[in-house]
Specification:
266 residues; alpha+beta; 60s Ribosomal Protein L30, Chain: A; 6 helices; 12% strand
Length: 266
């Protein structure tokens, strides 16, 4: 017994618990999971930005940011002690925004529909496959363009082939044939039309310039031709005379300034 009294003490360490004692816990796993989730969301966002149109992105933004805010309808737990909280302002703003969005979408749809219809009319008038206007001489008189008001169809004089006889409002055979073509093509759509007469300038030495009367008479001559060809005259919204105030050519006396505009209104 005495021989063991001076020996070093024997220490036995007993570890309680599971096998995680050698690690620093599971916090790093939570942080890593958050990082992976954030990266997934980031790449998903990048994919959406690349794979969607501007209109679709606006729709997604509107979905995640609603404009209508609803407040509690009633109850004594509310700040007004049982009174109904006035939410007219928020609801009105949200409803107004929704109406504006719907109206904008409706206008966009109408414009898209009109432009598609106008392209069809243009193709029928000036396209190479037009059945009603196959003569190259007639095609030379027709110029079309899109404006805010609608599709403008210009019937223009040419140096070698005017649309009216001399300085009168008597239509030439070319004008009569153009009116027949217009009546057939415009008769396939329902939009209203407007007519506008333009003439070249005349020398200032004339005591009485005919520009106003002549441009008006020629516009009405086309209206009469359309009426006679079976076109629905109630669709003609207005007939306007511009005299020599809106010339196409730099030279105010250029015969190309003699023209009738047929506007297919939006």
């Amino acid at each position: 017994m005495a021989g063991h009294g001076g020996g070093a003490p024997i220490i036995i360490k007993r570890v309680q618990g599971g096998g995680e004692a050698g690690h620093h816990g599971g916090a790093w796993k939570v942080a890593y999971a958050d990082f992976v989730t954030a990266m997934m969301a980031f790449f998903l966002l990048m994919w959406l930005l690349n794979a969607t149109t501007e209109k679709q992105r606006q729709g997604l933004a509107d979905y995640f940011n609603p404009t209508i805010v609803q407040s509690p309808a009633s109850g004594s737990d509310g700040p007004f002690g049982g009174e109904v909280q006035d939410s007219d302002t928020n609801t009105g703003q949200g409803a107004g925004a929704s109406r504006d969005t719907l109206m904008a979408q409706a206008r966009e749809g109408q414009q898209s529909g009109f432009e598609e219809m106008a392209r069809s009319v243009q193709n029928q008038l000036t396209g190479s496959g037009a059945e009603s206007m196959q003569k190259v001489n007639l095609l030379r008189h027709v110029v079309t363009r899109m404006t805010d008001e609608g599709l403008v169809i210009e019937l223009t004089d040419l140096m070698d082939e005017p649309l009216f006889v001399g300085d009168s409002a008597q239509p030439t055979p070319a004008m009569k044939e153009l009116a027949e073509v217009l009546s057939g093509v415009l008769g396939r759509v329902k939009n209203e039309i407007a007519l506008a007469g333009h003439v070249r300038a005349y020398p200032e030495m004339l005591i009485q310039s005919p520009v106003w009367a002549l441009s008006d008479a020629r516009a009405h001559a086309l209206r009469n031709l359309l009426d006679g060809s079976g076109f629905d005259g109630t669709r003609i919204q207005r007939v306007t005379a511009y005299a020599d105030r809106r010339n196409r050519s730099v030279n105010p006396m250029d015969p190309n300034n003699n023209r009738i505009e047929v506007i297919l209104l939006r």
